[in-house]
Amino acid sequence: MPEQTRQQNFNRGASSMVSAVFISKVLGILLIVPMQNLIGEYALGIYGIVYPLYTIMLTLSTAGFPLALSKTISTLTAKGKYKEANSTFSIVGRSLFLFGFLAFFIMWFGGPFYISLVAPGQKLVHDAIPAIRTLAPALLLLPLMSAQRGYLQGNLHLEPSAASQVIEQIVRVFIVLAGLMIGLSLGLTAGPMAAIATFGATAGAVGGFLLLLASVKKLRKETLRKSRFESTPKLKTLPVLQNLLTYSLPIVLGTLVLPLSQSIDVFTVPRELVFAGVSTITATAEFGRYTQEALRLIQLPLSFATAIGASILPAISSSLAKDDQKQAYQRLIRSLRMTAYIMIPAAVALGTFAAPIDVTLFKSAQGAQLIALAAVMSIFSGLELVTTYILQGHDRFYQPVFHMVVGLVIKLAGNLLLVPILGIGGAAVAGIIGYAVSSWMNMVSIRKVSDTNISFPKIAWRSLLSSLVLGAWLYALERMYLLWGITFHASSSRLTALLAVVIGLAIGAPLYIMASLWFKATDREELSSLPMVGRIIARWI
Known about the structure:
With 541 residues, the protein is mainly α. The protein has helices spanning 3-62, 65-78, 82-118, 122-135, 142-154, 158-186, 190-226, 237-255, 257-275, 280-321, 325-352, 354-362, 368-393, 398-422, 425-450, 456-488, 494-518, 524-528, 534-540. It is 87% helix and 0% strand. Helix 10 packs parallel to helix 13 (368-393) and helix 12 packs across helix 17 (494-518). The longest helix is centred in the N-terminal third of the chain and has 60 residues, at 3-62.
């Protein structure tokens, strides 16, 4: 494939990835809203306790192979070795299916033991077991799907991978909402309702798998035509897996940062709250408010960081495989600029407008402080994600893993020290400190590996100034919202809160874009690459 075509595929695919992840995360947030209203915060807490184990088992069952496969496929296709790339994918796909089956077996039979370790009370153990059992079957398909995505992304075909995420989420939302409505009509209790909510992951996996299967078959036919004169490589399973394991082991440790952080919260936060005198049901409800409301909201901006990172890893690997240091550096800078341009204003908007957002989505402003704290956390968490991918693209796999461990140790210590003092908010403060330290360590390593004096504050300060303009507008509107609520006793009105959010974002988004152009935080070319509305905005400007 000509270099210009590959670059166009990368730019278009990266935009598609961001768009798809944005849509899927929006659907996920929209799903949480009726879930919280239908099943209550206690059942939502069960959902939050069960999911980290599933995420860990999914990460371990894929063993980091998707990203390692993406990197390997990208390197092989850049050298024209298409048959070797296809053979490598076949070996990895079969292996990941077996790993997925093993993960399903462990979660199905070992899940109850895990719940007994983390749940402060037998009632919570009893209520959580059905949820973990309905979630386990998803592990039979998702590892194989991750191999398919790695193959597509390695060939810089990101659009099918992106579309599959949207299909997966649409099916999940439909199945969960339909199931919850039926469960509500039958008068089911919190345990079965939480089980219905977790079953959505299994149902969504089926839809995503079918789309990926069709896309992979089509791409393999195309690559086989290109490689008709290439000799067929004789690859053996064990050497291929051993080679990929060299890359995948540090990658899997790096991708474990979020589920391990969630698991630290699961093991420490509910128990620390109970030890501080909070009842088990209240502690579970507060934990659900933190994990499924505050942390769920920041998944939207974090999804952009994940999409940027997943796109930049094979892109940097491809540039370095051709010894094009200039292109690798340009892609590195672009990824950090995009991270700052998206993460900082999102955090400012969520933090400043936390109260009306909370009322709009979850009926009350009880979680507003948690949302504001989580918004700050999202900046450092997003930066850690992207910088981890950048280092892995430069073959520096174990450095971000060490930095991750340092951050997790800080997070654990912070939970134990701060939750008894600050309550549930202490977990968010501990997360901010942990992510700040690990992302700073990643940036230090990037400066060394790229042999530059690159600095994220220097890259991000223009986006920060633009975000302050946005923050000033939202703060003024938020004050008016509170004054209106006090005057007319409408502070808890969802309609009033919704109106404030719509006005705030409708004016705030173009205000931020214009401020970013004024401060030169971006340009027309970068704006045109923004998902969904980028070309329209660039043309209007």
